[in-house]
Every structure is written in structure tokens, then in C-alpha cells.
Amino acid sequence: MKGEIGGVELRYVALAGSVLTMFVLFFTGYFFKINDLNPLVHPLTLSSIAMVILFFPFGLADFARVKRIEEAERRLPDFLRDLAGHTNFGTPMSEAILRSAENKYGPLSIEIEHLAGMVKLGIPVETALNDFGKRLKSPSIIRVGKIIKKASESGSNTSDVISLVSSFTTQTYLMRESRFADMRSYSTTLATSFGVFLFVIVMLDTFFFPQIAGGGLSGGGVLNLASSSYGLIEKLFSAGVIVQSAASGLISGVFRDGRLTSGAMMSGILVLISIMVLAIIGVL
């Protein structure tokens, strides 16, 4: 199935590949004394790079999986309407499924073609519907399959039941899309707050701390203390930027659909931006 390698979801393959890549890089740096790859020499830099390697591929694969499921759920009412149209004229459910399978429903076609294949093999429709939605691992599609199964078993008003399910599925999808649209504003706020935080840190590292180090600022004990340890403070602020970028991305996933993993790709992107900016100003 698309999105899987050897029966394993692509996101988990990406995660395993990321972990293996990090292990090889850091093992090489540590045992072959390559300072640029040695986590003991550059802990902050390499841990930041590790976040990008870990988050971005996994997040990208998870994002593709979610989009595939969302598209399948968007096309589900179309399939149900076609199915209801066939059964409305007295066509048996098995024949209605075979006819509907001739149409294209995007990612949902995987489930429908599998369902039609089982029907062609002579497997009862009620039994075949037990597997509907399990390849995409979509609770909504699985639930619809169970409802159609019950309607088929009852043998009466099957077309009406399927039509009602189609309408309900459409409304559910539209409501969810509306909620996602509302949540995007919160994600935008998170990204904006991260941008402001990064800008402030850049200004401090670029103008304020060099003035302290060069003795351009004088004053009380606070500045004198900072002058002697501003390098450590720079590192702490840089670490704060990395943590902020990773956390902002993950929280954006929670805002989107309640899952931290939905924000993994955004975390990888924000951490990468942080690494590039901090490296350019020379504090990472």
C-alpha cells in the first residue's frame, strides 16, 4: 500500500532511518575524533541538528499520511452517494460495490478496490465490510463500513441509510475543516511569537553582548557580572531558541488535530531556521 514499506508505515521507517543516521554520525565523530561531529565538543549544535534529522523526515511522512487520510475522507461521501444511487434501484449491495469500484475516488480507491476484490472472490459483503478502512487506518471510514454492514444485514431501506450516512459524513468533514481553519490562527500566533523571540535574541547577540565584551557598556554589578560570563549567557539563549522552536512546532500540531506528531515537521523547520540564523551570527 502507498505510504508503507514492507507493511511498515513510512513515518516509522523515516524515524528509524533518522535514528540510525544520528547514531552513525555521532559514533563516527566520537570514535574517530572528528570534532565537528563529536557531540561532546559541540553539544548544542549537534543536538539541534539531531532534532532536525529526527523531526523533519518523520513529520513529513506523517503529514503525507494525514493528508492522504483527509483526502480519502473527503471523497467518502462521493462513494456513498454512488452506492446509494445503485442500491436505490434494487441493485444488490455486492453489485453496487462492484459498479462503484469502477469510479475513481483518490486515496479512498485503495479501500474500495480491496472491498470489491473480496466481493469478487465470493466473500459475503457483510464480512468484506469488516475490513473497510483498515488499510488507511481511518476511524471515520471504518465506522462508515460498520454502518453499511448493519444496513446491508437489515435488508431494508439500505439506500436511505447510506444516503443519511453520506450527508452526515459530509457535514462532519465540513465541521472539522472549519475547526482546522480556526486553529490555523493559533499556529500563526505561535510562529509569530517564535519569530519575535528569535529576533530579540539576535539583537542581543549582535549588538548588546559584544558591547559588554568590549567594555562599551559600564555600570553596576549586573553588567560587570554579564561581562565576565556573557559567552555562557549567549549559549543559554541559543539553547532557549532551539527549545522554543521545537516546542512551538509540536504545540502547533496539538492545535491542529490534538497530536504532537502533527507538529513534528514544523518543529524540524523551525529548528533548522534557528540553526541557520544562530550560525550566521556566530553564536552556535
Question: Would you mind describing this structure in some detail?
Answer:
The protein has 284 residues and is mainly α. The protein has a domain at 71-174: Receptor-associated Protein (Up-down Bundle). 76% of the residues lie in helices and 1% in strands. It has a two-stranded antiparallel sheet. Helix 2 (43-87) crosses helix 3, helix 2 runs antiparallel to helix 7 and helix 6 runs antiparallel to helix 7. The radius of gyration is 27 Å and the shape is elongated. It starts with a strand and ends with a helix.
* Main beta-sheet annotation: 2 strands, antiparallel
Count helical runs.
Answer: 9
How far apart lie the N and C ends? 42 Å
User: Percent of residues in helical segments?
Assistant: over 70%
Q: Let me know the average pLDDT.
A: 84
- What is the CATH-assigned architecture of the domain at 71-174? Up-down Bundle
H-E order: EEHHHHHHHHH
Query: Can you tell me the CATH topology of the domain at 71-174?
Result: Receptor-associated Protein
Tally the beta strands.
2
Oligomerization state of this entry? single chain
How large is the share of residues in beta strands?
A: under 5%
CATH top level class name of the domain at 71-174: Mainly Alpha
Radius of gyration: 27 Å
**How does the overall form come out from the CA principal axes?**
elongated
**For the largest beta sheet, what order do the strands appear in spatially?**
1-2
Uncertain segments = none
Alpha-beta content class: mainly alpha
Subcellular location: Cell membrane
Domain Type II secretion system protein GspF: 79-204
InterPro entries: ArlJ-like, T2SS_GspF_dom
GO cellular component, one term: plasma membrane
